[in-house]
Specification:
Layout (H helix, E strand, L loop, with lengths): L2 H18 L21 H4 L2 H10 L16 E2 L5 E5 L4 H6 L6 H11 L9 E5 L13 H18 L3 E5 L1 H8 L5 H4 L3 E6 L2 E8 L2 H6 L4 H16 L1
Length: 231
C-alpha cells in the first residue's frame, strides 16, 4: 500500500472517531506514512521480463515436468505484428526461444518477404510456453493454464496486428473449433484490455514443410496482412 492510500484511511478513521466522540470534525491530521517496500510497482508487475521470469518458474500444469526450458517469447518491445503459434518444439525446448527450428527458419523467411522481422518489428510467442511431450497438441487445460501469460503479453505489447500461426493457436485465440482452412484469409478482432487488434490466421510453418499445397494460401494470407499494414 502506498503512503497516499494510508493517509486516506487514517483520515476516514479520524472522522469516525470525531463523530463518535464530540460530534465535531477536528482539523485533518497529516501522518508520515511510507510506501510498503514489499509491494511490487505496477511496472514491475507488468513487464515482459517479469512475465518471462514467472513462465520459467511456472509449475501450474504437467508440461513443466518434462521441459528443458520454457520459451516465453522474444522480439521487438513495440511490435507492428505479434506472431502467435502453438508451442515450443524440440529445438525451442533446448534453447528456450520460440520458432528456432526448421519451422522457425521458414517463419523468418515468410516474415521477411513482407518486410517483417523478429529483430525489428515483430514479437513471437506461443499459446503454451513449454513443449508438449512428443510435440503433441497441447490439451485445453494446458492452454488455459498458460492463457494469462499470453494475455498479459498482448496487453503490454499492444501490437498493431496479430498473425496467428496454425490451428491450435487459432482455436485458442478465436475461441472456435472451425478448421484452419475456413479461418484463414480474413481478419478477426481480438479484444485485449479494451483494445481491438486485427488478427489473421494462416497455416503453421510446420504444416507448410509437410504439405506444399499450403504454401500458396499461406502466401496469400501474408499478402493480405501486408496490404492491411500498408493501408
Amino acid at each position: 500500500m502506498v503512503a497516499a492510500e494510508k493517509q486516506k484511511i487514517a483520515n476516514f478513521l479520524d472522522i469516525v472517531d470525531d463523530f463518535l466522540g464530540s460530534g465535531y470534525r477536528s482539523e485533518p491530521k497529516e501522518y508520515n506514512f511510507d510506501d510498503d517496500s514489499s509491494a511490487p510497482s505496477q511496472s514491475a508487475a507488468d513487464s515482459l521480463e517479469q512475465i518471462a521470469k514467472e513462465i520459467k518458474l511456472c509449475r501450474s500444469c504437467p508440461l513443466c515436468e518434462k521441459r528443458l526450458n520454457a520459451a516465453p517469447g522474444e522480439g521487438a518491445k513495440q511490435p507492428l505484428v505479434m506472431v502467435i503459434g502453438e508451442g515450443p518444439g524440440e529445438d525451442e525446448d533446448k534453447q528456450g526461444r520460440p520458432f528456432v527450428g526448421k519451422a522457425g527458419q521458414l517463419l523468418d523467411k515468410m516474415l521477411d518477404s513482407i518486410g517483417l522481422s523478429r529483430d525489428v518489428n515483430c514479437f513471437i510467442a506461443n499459446v503454451v510456453k513449454c513443449r508438449p511431450p512428443g510435440n503433441r497438441d497441447p490439451f485445453p487445460e494446458e492452454t488455459q493454464s498458460c492463457s494469462h501469460f499470453l494475455n498479459r503479453q498482448i496487453t503490454l505489447l499492444r501490437p498493431k496486428f496479430i498473425l496467428i500461426a496454425g490451428r491450435i493457436a487459432a482455436h485458442t485465440l478465436l475461441k472456435t473449433n472451425e478448421p484452419i482452412g475456413r479461418l484463414r484469409g480474413k481478419f478477426f478482432d481480438i479484444d485485449s484490455g479494451g483494445l481491438k487488434i486485427p488478427a489473421i490466421a494462416t497455416y503453421h510453418p510446420a504444416a507448410l514443410l509437410r504439405n506444399d499445397d499450403y504454401k500458396r494460401p499461406a502466401w496469400e494470407d501474408l499478402k493480405l496482412l501486408k496490404s492491411k499494414i500498408d493501408n
